[in-house]
Amino acid sequence: MDKQHKIGMFGFGCVGQGLYDILEKTNFRAEVVKICVKNKSKERSLPAHFFTYDASSILDDDNINLVVELIDNADEAYQIVTTALKRGKNVVTANKKMVAEHLEELLQLQEKHGVSLLYEGAVCGCIPIIRTLEEYYDNELVFSVSGIFNGSSNYILTKVIQENMSYANALKQAQDLGFAETDPTLDVGGFDPLYKLCIVALHAYGVIAKPDEVFNYGIQSLSEHDIRFAIEKGYKLKLLASIEKINDHEVSLSVMPHFVGKGHYLYHVENEYNAAIVEAAFSSKQVFTGKGAGGHPTGSAVLSDISANRYEYKYEYRKALAKKGSGLLPLKISYGQVQEIYLRYHDEQDFKLLPFITISEKYQGTDFNYVIGTVRLSDLYKYKNELNKRNVFVANTGKKISTEQATPILNGVETLV
Length: 417
Ligand SMILES: NC(=O)c1ccc[n+]([C@@H]2O[C@H](COP(=O)([O-])OP(=O)(O)OC[C@H]3O[C@@H](n4cnc5c(N)ncnc54)[C@H](OP(=O)(O)O)[C@@H]3O)[C@@H](O)[C@H]2O)c1
Fold this sequence. Notes:
CATH architecture of the largest domain: 2-Layer Sandwich
CATH superfamily of the largest domain: Dihydrodipicolinate Reductase, domain 2
Largest sheet: 7 strands, mixed
Bound molecules: NADP nicotinamide-adenine-dinucleotide phosphate
Structural class: alpha/beta
Oligomer: single chain
Shape: globular
Strand content: 15-25%
């Protein structure tokens, strides 16, 4: 059934304006009734009658049948979205933090009030990964979903490695171009890809992973030494989010920088581009790439949700609900995986923080040191806060480690077990 949309929008920043522009250029059959914004003294590109500063003038308006939430504050977005759902309004949002932090409740509210919440724009910009996992990969045996889920970090990593730009300048450019979140720690601290990974986990495996249950580590302590290391070895650095099915009962999740060589699928994914690799039993490996940030790319994903909503599309969360109905236990989060990492450090104390299982390379220089060795994901998770506080940088070498390889026997190098 094709229905006429009467839209109440929250937010008219990078994505809100991008969406409005797209609605106009595509002549999409929907009326934007009101736009709620915050700052009364800001100049607007539309006449004043479009704007309100009072959320209730949208939420209390029975004429408005779709709320499009595009603000930059997750807590305020939560209030807006939950109120709208409780009042029987369908909602489209691009706010990954808000969705990831309240997945369980948002599922229940949709069920209870018979409404739909869509959030394709919240994950990987215009790459249609959520609906792809939900619909196309409905019955496939998905082995893993991984990729570059954060446009700003990828933009910064591209500029500092390929163009020798300083980290501070690259971050400033990402902000000026509208790719970075208002609080850049969300991007460079690996939180934005973490929230997206939690959403992906639900649609790929029916798993509700809370953000603080997952190891995430960003690029904020990247130094010239790490950049030189990558360049000398012919690698690029990519901030990768991944979820992998370990066995019939467990999945493993992480967000951290990875060194990738020329043969890697993501080696050539640059700037604000995102990518998602889905590996499954029968379709094998599929790579989706596209712009992961910016007003128009994200606005395009939001438009797709608005359009889907016109035909009453809802996520069915079949993977989560199937387990519930059948009495099967939901997949658990595993921390047992062994990873090979590069740890750049200055003080010996910082090196001793992580219990390495094996060490294959150790370099000690005048201005920095590094070690390459294997550690358990559980230890990375345990020392996550410490790693962020200390003068160190951690990246995954990208080498697949089997349990045998992680046996603590080393060629004459000290083993710390
Ligand atoms: N930028 C991207 O590339 C991108 C990509 C994917 C997803 N997203 C997500 O999209 C959302 C919006 O991001 P953005 O980059 O468009 O943010 P932005 O440019 O900073 O714009 C934020 C907008 O929200 C408004 N706002 C803030 N608090 C409000 C409140 N309580 N009530 C009403 N309006 C409020 C602001 O009002 P004023 O205009 O009055 O300041 C502004 O118009 C975020 O959740 C972000 O994570 C962004």
